[in-house]
From TrEMBL:
<dbReference type="Pfam" id="PF00535">
    <property type="entry name" value="Glycos_transf_2"/>
</dbReference>
<dbReference type="InterPro" id="IPR029044">
    <property type="entry name" value="Nucleotide-diphossugar_trans"/>
</dbReference>
<dbReference type="GO" id="GO:0016757">
    <property type="term" value="F:glycosyltransferase activity"/>
</dbReference>
<dbReference type="InterPro" id="IPR001173">
    <property type="entry name" value="Glyco_trans_2-like"/>
</dbReference>
<comment type="similarity">
    <text>Belongs to the glycosyltransferase 2 family.</text>
</comment>
<keyword id="KW-0328">Glycosyltransferase</keyword>
<protein>
    <recommendedName>
        <fullName>Glycosyltransferase 2-like domain-containing protein</fullName>
    </recommendedName>
</protein>
<feature type="domain" description="Glycosyltransferase 2-like">
    <location>
        <begin position="11"/>
        <end position="189"/>
    </location>
</feature>
<comment type="pathway">
    <text>Cell wall biogenesis; cell wall polysaccharide biosynthesis.</text>
</comment>
<keyword id="KW-0808">Transferase</keyword>
Length: 318
C-alpha cells in the first residue's frame, strides 16, 4: 500500500447491478488530469455478477488506475455503502474524498477544480460539479437549494441549455451525491451520512448538517461531469420501480421534519401541508399514466407518506 499524501483523493464509487455503467465511469477516470487519486469501488451485494466481472477486468489489465475493491455483503443503501468505503479511506489517512455516481462520465479536468476549491478556502467543507444530462449540453445540476420553510429541494438550472448562465462559483444549500467532494474534517465535525434514509435525501441531510456546523457548501462549474438520467423526464422517476416512489416520498417528509425540528408548530404545519401538495403533484401523473404496477405504486406512495410522518426509517420491508 502506497503512502497517502495530503494531495491524494479517495474516489468512492458505489456499484449495484450495473456493470456497463460502472465500467464506463471507471474508464473515464483514466483520463483525469489530476494525478493523485485512488478509487474505492464498493459493491452493495450485486446479484448480476457485475462486481466479480469488474474485478476480473481489473486483473486482466483493462483498467489503468489504482482500485480497491470492497464487497459489503448486503445492500446497505446509498449512505451505508458509501460509508463503508469512506471509513476505509479515512483509516488510510486520505484528506479529500470524492463521491461519484457509477452512472456518470467525468470530464478529464473534473477533479482538479474541486481539490483547488478545498485547498483555497479551509472553510469550504463540500464542493460539487456542474452536471449535464449524459451526451447533452443540458444542465441537470448547478447547485442545490433547500427551502427551509417547506423542506423541499431543487436542482438549480435543471433542464436548461447551458449558455454560461451558471458559470460562477457560488455558495449553495447542498451538493448532490452524484458528484460530491469533501474534506476529512467534515467527517470529524459532522459525522457520516445518515444511513436511516437508505435511498435519497441522505446527502441533502448531510449537507444541511454540515452547513449548520459552519462549513461552506460550494458549486464549482469548472468541474464537469455527465449523468445518465433521462433528459425528457427531468428525474421525475416516471420509469423507475414503485419502491423508488416510496423512498422519495418517505424521505422528503423525514428530512422536512428534521429541518423543522426547532421551528414553531405553525411553520411545521406549513411545511407538511406543502410537502403533501408536492407529493400529490409529483406522483398523480405517474399513477394515472403509468399502467404498469400503478396500484402498487399508489400503495407505496401512501405508505411512504405515513412512514415519513412517523419517522419510520430504514430499508423497505425491514
Amino acid at each position: 500500500m502506497k503512502q497517502v499524501t495530503n494531495k491524494d483523493v479517495a474516489i468512492i464509487i458505489l456499484n449495484w447491478n450495473a456493470y456497463d455503467d460502472t465500467f464506463e465511469c471507471l474508464k473515464s477516470l483514466e483520463h483525469l488530469t489530476y494525478p493523485y487519486f485512488h478509487v474505492f469501488l464498493v459493491d452493495n451485494a450485486s446479484q448480476d455478477g457485475s462486481f466479480d466481472k469488474l474485478q476480473q477486468d481489473y486483473n486482466d489489465g483493462k483498467f489503468h488506475l489504482p482500485i480497491t475493491f470492497i464487497q459489503t455483503g448486503a445492500n446497505l443503501g446509498f449512505a451505508g455503502g458509501n460509508n463503508v468505503a469512506i471509513r476505509e479511506a479515512h483509516k488510510q489517512g486520505y484528506q479529500y474524498f470524492w463521491l461519484l455516481n457509477n452512472d456518470t462520465v467525468v470530464d478529464p479536468n473534473a477533479l482538479t477544480p474541486l481539490v483547488e476549491t478545498l485547498e483555497k478556502d479551509k472553510q469550504v467543507g463540500i464542493v460539487g460539479s456542474k452536471i449535464y444530462y449524459y451526451g447533452t449540453n443540458k444542465i441537470w445540476f448547478a447547485g442545490g437549494k433547500v427551502n427551509t420553510w417547506t423542506g423541499t429541494t431543487k436542482h438549480i438550472g435543471i433542464k436548461e441549455e447551458d449558455v454560461g448562465q451558471y458559470d460562477e462559483v457560488k455558495e449553495v444549500d447542498y451538493i448532490t451525491g452524484c458528484s460530491l467532494c469533501f474534506r476529512r474534517e467534515v467527517l470529524e465535525t459532522v459525522g457520516y451520512m445518515c444511513e436511516d434514509y437508505f435511498l435519497y435525501y441522505e446527502e441533502t441531510d448531510w449537507n444541511v448538517r454540515s452547513s449548520n456546523r459552519g462549513w461552506k457548501i460550494i458549486y464549482q462549474p469548472s468541474s464537469v461531469i455527465y449523468h445518465k438520467v433521462s433528459s425528457s423526464s427531468g428525474g421525475e422517476r416516471k420509469s423507475m420501480p414503485p419502491y423508488i416512489a416510496y423512498y422519495d416520498v418517505r424521505n422528503s417528509f423525514a428530512m422536512t421534519r428534521k429541518v423543522q425540528k426547532k421551528c414553531s408548530h405553525i411553520r411545521v404545519s406549513i411545511a407538511l401541508l406543502s410537502m403533501i401538495w408536492n407529493v400529490i403533484k409529483k406522483n398523480i401523473k405517474i399513477i394515472l399514466l403509468n399502467e404498469d404496477k400503478k396500484i402498487l405504486r399508489g400503495k407505496l406512495i401512501l405508505k411512504g407518506f405515513i412512514d415519513g410522518i412517523n419517522m419510520r426509517m430504514g430499508k423497505l420491508g425491514e
